[in-house]
Amino acid sequence: MTDLVKLLHLVAAIFWMGGMAFMLMALRPAAIALMQPPERLMLMGAVWKRFFPVVLVSAIALFATGANLYTTLFRAIKEATGQGSVPLGWNLMLVLGLLMMVIFAYIYGVTYPKFKRAMTSLDWPLAGQAAAQVHLLMVTNFTLGWLAIAAVRLVR
Ligand code: HEM
Hints:
The structure is a single chain. 91% of the residues lie in helices and 0% in strands. The chain is an all-alpha fold. The protein has one domain (2-154). α3 (88-120) packs antiparallel against α4 (124-154). The two termini are 23 Å apart. The structure holds protoporphyrin IX containing FE (HEM). Protoporphyrin IX containing FE is lined by residues 6, 9-10, 13, 17, 62-63, 66-67, 69-70, 73, 90, 93-94, 97-98, 100, 145, 148-149, 152.
């Protein structure tokens, strides 16, 4: 059962991190190279409209499976050693993962709606500003995600 939960945890992480990698390293630079602001902003909006629900599901799955793994493995460690301590890397993953979720909630609940409102009123400078904010927050989450993965694999 733990193996299945861990697999689901990995699948959700791959969807979220892989999507951000593609967006930041391929899609956005290509759009900047080939398109001017109104079309570029429309493309990014159409992409986010499809990608953000995927992130929402991934984040919920990561939290549910992560909490399950943490508590199950914590109990197993306690039974085996008599001590209730987990590797520091797990706690780092918990904190960094929660931070990523808060940042995504801010993107989805504040910055992205601001972008959509600006697009509806054809306010390209404001839409561009909101898009730049989404980008910055996404870079932050991408960095935190790799730190969380490095922590869980390397910090004992
Ligand atoms: C509330 C958030 C989270 C909690 C409580 C959590 C908890 C855990 C736990 C307990 C493990 C197992 C560690 C082990 O067996 O040594 C794990 C593994 C892992 N987690 Fe998380 N996690 C969370 C969020 C995330 C996020 C946001 C990502 C992606 C960026 C992620 C990616 C991974 C990966 C790649 C592994 C390694 C799986 C393996 O070793 O096979 N986790 N996590």
